[in-house]
Design brief:
By secondary structure, the protein is α+β, with helices and mostly antiparallel strands. It has 7 helices and 32 strands.
């Protein structure tokens, strides 16, 4: 191949040469008289602004690159070696400090010990009650438009005290229920509240006899129906049908109207989900339901109420001690007041050995029984499995085997308190003292018990025109005052009692005249807003009253007085000491 040099190749640099040309000048066309104007700058100085000639403004921007800031700070400390001790400076003798503390500390501890028993600065302070409002006024009145001939069967507040729920029905219903009545909820303190339009309306087949909000979940509401069903609604879900769980009607469940429902602790852990539901009915059963899995297909435990000669007692009211969850009291249709104990959950006995596989739900039913009853139920269920061919035993199989109800639901350990002469329409433990019990009856009497004593401490007879109109329809302890409770009469009137002022007569009667009916069927105190009392009546209206300040503000030594009433020596009433300490913050 021939190389470039051999072919006459010329280097590119040889193609360029130096040349010189004359320059050309182009001038801008400038008017004879340039135009300009005087403009004031931001700093206040004037300058001439002329005509822009074929040039654009040169824009400049300053940017700081790789810059940093340094700050210096002085402190008032230095190392031991940096301090030079002069001749005139004194060095601290640590031994002298130790000796000083040894001499002073005992005196200081003695003074601190005496301070516990000295009079606090405001211990002798008494509020000027005469300067506060002494009147009782109605703050709200709500109802459901369109309801005819329906009365309020139950009212209850949720745990935040903001939502009020009311169930409607007919309390004089006998036999088969042909009534369909709703459950209504109002956010009482909402500015856009419309009295006749509930915020939430829950349609129920039949009607609800009793309601109870969850202690820690404000939107969870449980209700017992006239047909014997237990239902749970999630009122915060926003769905048209908030029902999340419902029980059925069976021989081993409630076959009569549920008279009371209450949330109780499942154990002592205190968790948000560690709650059970307790119900009582006229069929004589107290049933416990585990609703943590939103399943009410069958109760987790139960008790039969037995009276003299092993006869079943129909339940009318139920209450569990808020400070002792294993203690409960049942009021019966016959007037009996029964104190009972439910055994706390113990260690599991394990699965029975044999040819059948016992599942945990079935083992849980066995673990709640005594040894003899456990063996009797195990043999009965396994005989049923031999007949039906089942190999696995669940709680559903246990109920399908149709055991003796007295074996599956044994009678609890009970003690009879002083009886009423009529059905016990209400029973309620005090939220301030674990032994204080309030009961009301159709015989017109209201009693206060020390639950550890058989006889009542005090008996009250609210005013009534005639003996035939004296039945007590509802009663409730105040959530703010340990010595205050309210009583509603079936034929009209709501009376407020204050044990500090009188142990015989009521201190106030609610002003029910003027709106609604005077026949109150249910009442309840607000758990957060002290002094608010909600009452439901036979006309279907729910009214909220604000009690006077003196009946709403806990007074000095009130819990101590309650303890002395029950004979407690040096007691501040269990929960009361904590309430007293936190009273100022709560108020």
């Amino acid at each position: 191949m021939e190389s470039p040099k051999q072919a006459g190749y010329i280097h590119p640099s040889a193609r360029f040469a130096d040349e010189s040309f004359e320059g050309a000048t182009v001038r801008s066309a400038v008017p004879d008289k340039p135009f300009y104007k005087v403009v004031q700058d931001k700093d206040g100085k004037n300058y001439a602004q002329g005509v822009r000639l074929q040039t654009d403004k040169v824009e400049r921007a300053n940017r700081r690159l790789q810059s940093f800031e340094v700050k210096e700070m002085e402190i008032q400390t230095s190392g031991p070696g940096d301090v030079a001790v002069g001749d005139d400076e004194q060095v601290v003798d640590e031994q002298q400090v130790v000796e000083f503390l040894r001499a002073v500390v005992p005196l200081l501890e003695e003074e601190l010990g005496l301070a516990w028993n000295s009079m606090p600065a405001f211990d002798a302070y008494e509020p000027m009650w005469e300067d506060t409002a002494e009147t009782c006024e109605m703050t709200h009145q709500v109802w459901k438009e369109g309801l005819v001939d329906l009365e309020v069967t139950c009212v209850t507040w949720n745990t935040t005290g903001a939502t009020l729920a009311a169930s409607y029905g007919k309390l004089d219903t006998l036999g088969w229920c042909e009534v369909a009545a709703p459950v209504c909820l109002w956010n009482i303190f909402r500015p856009q509240l419309v009295a006749g339009e509930p915020d939430t309306v829950i349609q129920v087949q039949g009607f609800v006899m009793c309601l109870a909000f969850h202690p820690t979940k404000p939107g969870l509401l449980a209700g017992g129906t006239y047909n014997g069903e237990l239902q749970i609604w999630n009122t915060a879900s926003g769905e048209l049908d908030p029902l999340i769980a419902s029980s059925s009607i069976d021989d081993y469940f409630h076959r009569e109207a549920i008279q009371a429902v209450e949330w109780i602790p499942a154990d002592l852990s205190g968790g948000a989900d560690a709650w059970l539901l307790a119900t009582v009915s006229g069929d004589g059963k107290v049933l416990l339901w585990d609703a943590r899995e939103n399943d009410l297909s069958m109760p987790s435990r139960g008790f039969m109420l037995l009276g003299a000669k092993k006869k079943i007692l129909g339940g009318r009211s139920l209450t569990f001690s808020p400070l002792d969850p294993w203690l409960f009291v049942v009021g019966s249709e016959t007037g009996n007041v029964i104190r009972a104990f439910r055994p706390p959950p113990g260690a599991s006995m394990g699965k029975p050995q044999g040819a059948y596989s016992w599942k945990p739900s079935a083992v849980a039913l066995l673990d709640q029984l005594a040894a003899n009853a456990r063996l009797q139920l195990q043999n009965h269920v396994e005989n049923h499995c031999r007949t039906s061919g089942a190999k696995e035993i669940t709680a559903e199989v246990v109920f399908q085997s149709k055991p003796d109800p007295s074996v599956l639901f044994p009678a609890p350990k009970t003690t009879d308190l002083e009886s009423h002469a009529g059905p016990v329409t209400v029973a309620m433990f005090s939220p301030f003292h674990r032994k204080l019990l309030l009961t009301g009856s159709a015989d017109g009497s209201v009693r206060i018990f020390d639950v550890l004593q058989q006889r009542a401490l005090s008996t009250f007879f609210p005013p009534a025109a005639h003996l035939s109109t004296c039945a007590v329809s509802a009663a409730c302890w105040s959530s703010a005052r340990p010595c205050v409770f309210a009583v509603a009469m079936e034929m009209g009137g709501v009376y407020i009692y204050d044990l500090l002022q009188s142990r015989q007569a009521p201190v106030m009667e609610l002003p029910l005249t003027g709106s609604g009916s005077q026949k109150v069927t249910s009442l309840t105190f607000n758990p957060k807003q002290r002094g608010l009392l909600a009452v439901g009546d036979t006309s279907g209206r729910v009214r909220v009253f604000r009690l006077p300040f003196k009946l709403s503000e806990q007074q000095k030594n009130e819990v101590t007085f309650l303890g002395s009433l029950l004979g407690d020596k040096g007691s501040r009433g269990d929960k009361g000491s904590e309430k007293d300490r936190q009273g100022g913050a709560a108020r």
